[in-house]
UniProtKB/TrEMBL annotation:
<keyword id="KW-0418">Kinase</keyword>
<dbReference type="GO" id="GO:0030975">
    <property type="term" value="F:thiamine binding"/>
</dbReference>
<dbReference type="GO" id="GO:0009229">
    <property type="term" value="P:thiamine diphosphate biosynthetic process"/>
</dbReference>
<dbReference type="Pfam" id="PF04265">
    <property type="entry name" value="TPK_B1_binding"/>
</dbReference>
<dbReference type="Pfam" id="PF04263">
    <property type="entry name" value="TPK_catalytic"/>
</dbReference>
<dbReference type="GO" id="GO:0016301">
    <property type="term" value="F:kinase activity"/>
</dbReference>
<dbReference type="InterPro" id="IPR036759">
    <property type="entry name" value="TPK_catalytic_sf"/>
</dbReference>
<dbReference type="InterPro" id="IPR053149">
    <property type="entry name" value="TPK"/>
</dbReference>
<dbReference type="GO" id="GO:0004788">
    <property type="term" value="F:thiamine diphosphokinase activity"/>
</dbReference>
<protein>
    <recommendedName>
        <fullName>Thiamine diphosphokinase</fullName>
        <ecNumber>2.7.6.2</ecNumber>
    </recommendedName>
</protein>
<keyword id="KW-0067">ATP-binding</keyword>
<keyword id="KW-0547">Nucleotide-binding</keyword>
<dbReference type="InterPro" id="IPR007371">
    <property type="entry name" value="TPK_catalytic"/>
</dbReference>
<dbReference type="GO" id="GO:0005524">
    <property type="term" value="F:ATP binding"/>
</dbReference>
<keyword id="KW-0808">Transferase</keyword>
<dbReference type="InterPro" id="IPR007373">
    <property type="entry name" value="Thiamin_PyroPKinase_B1-bd"/>
</dbReference>
<dbReference type="InterPro" id="IPR006282">
    <property type="entry name" value="Thi_PPkinase"/>
</dbReference>
């Protein structure tokens, strides 16, 4: 068990894959409201369950009577996911895995997970967001991100600002010291030639990978 690595079980969709198990197998676990249902799929027992529990039915709650629960009012100033992040950090987290952060019924929540993750990376935390089938890695200026991907896997770089000095290595469409205007689709649907690396000198970005989608091979 890695005492500073935390998996946060969130309310979006989750597909259990080998990569997901590898990401989460040595981490501690905190569940946010209905994200607790993923504990059954991953066969893990969270150390804490937080939220207003408006999306957790009685049957789910009854499945985990031994897990500590902290209940918050529905009218609160943070999402259940953000509360789970704060609890993990209070317990010493340096690495955060947002499981169930992508997709689901609430696109506003999914986008908020992106924004929260970008802020956390700037504060020095290691963060990955995953649905099992997709993975998202926030990265900030003056940093390099290396990612193991199979040849032919699809990935995109999403700029949350104008990106300067963007470099993408070992991809079908590489870039070197490139300026990407905010809102440009230039870096959508690239194809890995194997393990890739991405860096930039200025800006905020997210690498979104589909490790099991080899349609570009």
């Amino acid at each position: 068990m890695n005492a500073t690595s935390f998996t946060l079980l969130l309310g979006g969709t989750l597909t259990v894959t080998d990569r997901l198990r590898a990401l989460t197998q040595v981490s501690r676990v905190i569940a946010a409201d209905s994200g607790m249902r993923h504990a059954l799929e991953l066969n893990v027992l969270p150390e804490l369950w937080v939220g207003d529990f408006d999306s957790s039915d009685a049957a789910l709650i009854e499945r985990f009577p031994s897990v500590e629960r902290r209940t918050y009012p529905a009218a609160k100033a943070a999402t259940d996911g953000e509360i789970a992040v704060a609890e993990a950090i209070a317990r010493g987290a340096t690495r955060l895995i947002f499981a169930g952060a992508l997709g689901g019924e609430r696109s506003d929540h999914a986008l908020q997970h992106y924004l929260n993750a970008l802020g956390l990376v700037e504060d020095g935390y290691e963060v990955v967001l995953t649905s099992g089938e997709e993975e998202a890695y926030p990265f900030a200026e003056d940093s390099e991100l290396a990612l193991e991907l199979p040849k032919g896997a699809l990935f995109s770089v999403l700029g949350f600002t104008t990106l300067e000095g963007l470099t993408i290595n070992n991809a079908r469409y590489p870039l070197q010291d490139f300026k990407l205007p905010f809102g440009s689709s230039r870096t959508i649907s690239n194809i890995a030639e194997g393990p890739i690396s991405v860096s930039l000198s200025r800006g905020r970005a997210m690498l979104l990978a589909r490790p099991y989608d080899l349609s570009g091979a």
